[in-house]
Specification:
It is built from 5 helices and 5 strands, in the order βαβαβαβααβ. The chain is α/β, with parallel strands linked by helices. Helix 2 links the parallel strand 2 and strand 3. Helix 3 packs across helix 5. The longest helix has 30 residues. InterPro entries: Rossmann-like_a/b/a_fold, Universal_stress_UspA, UspA. Pfam families: Usp (PF00582).
């Protein structure tokens, strides 16, 4: 297992708190940091071929926009932290994708923020942080 930390980042306040915590942990552990941004994607099997083609085109545009407006500015901001930072930008179910990235990169832990949702919907369907904690094969730190 490498000394690599995966942190989920979506631009929200909770993900920023998780990122700041992850940077501190990476400095303390002399670890590399992978900032993962996952765009939710669900397949629509009932779309026509033309609709699927348009959807895949939009998918590429969304990836470009997320990279330009989320990850590139973040990478620039983190460049003076003294921590080696790389990014991963993917489509998929957020919890599963974060765990896949951690497995592929042999990460030692995952750090993720939580929004603190306690409503009935969050209890029924589960929050991303809770799902990551249930699925991950490495330790997970949930930053409130």
């Amino acid at each position: 297992m490498s000394n690599t930390i995966v942190v989920g980042y979506d631009g929200s306040d909770s993900s920023l708190r998780a990122l700041n915590f992850a940077v501190d942990r990476a400095k303390a552990e002399k670890a590399e940091l992978i900032v993962a941004h996952v765009l939710e994607w669900s397949p629509y099997a009932f779309l026509t071929p033309t609709e699927l083609e348009e959807r895949h085109k939009r998918r590429g545009e969304e990836l470009d926009r997320a990279n330009k407006h989320v990850l590139e500015p973040l990478t620039k901001r983190l460049s003076d932290t003294g921590v080696k930072v790389t990014t991963e930008l993917r489509y998929g179910r957020t919890a599963d994708t974060l765990c896949s990235i951690a497995a592929e990169k042999s990460a030692s832990q995952i750090i993720i923020g939580r929004t603190g949702g306690s409503g009935i919907a969050a209890r029924l369907f589960g929050a991303v942080a809770g799902s990551v904690a249930q699925v991950a094969t490495v330790p997970v730190t949930i930053v409130p």
